[in-house]
């Protein structure tokens, strides 16, 4: 087992990894930018190391600075968390070449699944169903022609990256032309998939050791999204029958075997509600934000499992040993204003009262008097509740949301309360368009802003938020 692990991340996931390491008697090293000097993950770690200015590109994305921190603090492994460098195959290579252990899948696997077009090509021989797609687009003419071949509506996706960022839906040639006037096909590689109008987003957690054993830990329902980014997740999905659940689990294992996957990951599917057909979307080669709901219903600690697999330990359980109990829901609380198209809301937290009580889990990297910085993702906390039934989990979550008090910044707490109170949500009648169509949170459309104004504002925040804002121009 490792003696000391450096965590190449920040916020709630860094805190989550620190806690797992403490339970395994492993020392931790927190890296931090200037803006995060007093952050919670820095306070909780055994050692801490500054890696640069507040801008993520010069700190949490600075591979040399992170490796220098690992060398100088005597770390023997690096955990990348999610986001930042977690899907950077070059960094994974650099870590292993430096004689350290990368806690995640092999670099060659990250490359294979990191680009969605390469991942789709890897799946084809196995016969895993996929929505019709295109080759990576090179120019306007190719894009217009490819959209016709794929068939409208189409969704334009960046080949690399995750988190639902940079995706656009076009229902016709005019909408596509407007989108192509915004995106840069030369700077970013995009491709098309046929867009399934009525669908549910179903993902499956997979776990694979280094000796050929691979299992799945059930599915997560991730259909409640804004701008293709998840708001609320639950496990299991009430949309699936037992037969469908077995089918998607086997598809996920088949997909993982197609790329010789190791460590933990997530295989994502769209469930077409017109025919109950699963379509492969992608494999995420990292821990997911929503991993906690899988832990809640299986009792399996995924972060500790990641670390044990990276240390060379075999899986201790087989598929038949996995038992699912109850129902779990996660609400992602972001420092955003839902009434203003989810505009980020940085600032100092002046009041912070965390929810608690039976069957409530609270994951966060913040406390009162800390600041939400404009340089990073706006996620400030995750509330996870588990009940005997879905209805039970909803009631516990409603209580927890009411208890969670945050002042000083805008948050999505009230939006989550609206979701839980909605009759369609309570009966499980949801799809990926639920938030937009049912809750109508996009009534103030960004089209009233000029592209120039949005670009100017986004540049003041950071490149990540710029991507988010681009998604609003439609």
Automatic annotation (TrEMBL):
Which InterPro entries does the entry link to? ACC_Biotin_Carboxylase (IPR051602), ATP-grasp (IPR011761), BC-like_N (IPR005481), Biotin_carboxylation_dom (IPR011764), Biotin_COase_C (IPR005482), CPAse_ATP-bd (IPR005479), PreATP-grasp_dom_sf (IPR016185), Rudment_hybrid_motif (IPR011054)
Q: Where is the ATP-grasp domain?
A: 120-311
Enzyme Commission number(s) of this protein = 6.3.4.14
- The regions listed as transmembrane in this protein's record are none
Q: Which UniProt keywords apply?
A: ATP-binding, Biotin, Ligase, Nucleotide-binding
Ranges for domain Biotin carboxylation come to: 1-440
Keyword flag Methyltransferase: no
Q: Which GO terms describe its molecular function?
A: ATP binding; biotin carboxylase activity; metal ion binding
Purpose of the protein: This protein is a component of the acetyl coenzyme A carboxylase complex; first, biotin carboxylase catalyzes the carboxylation of the carrier protein and then the transcarboxylase transfers the carboxyl group to form malonyl-CoA.
Q: What is this protein called?
A: biotin carboxylase
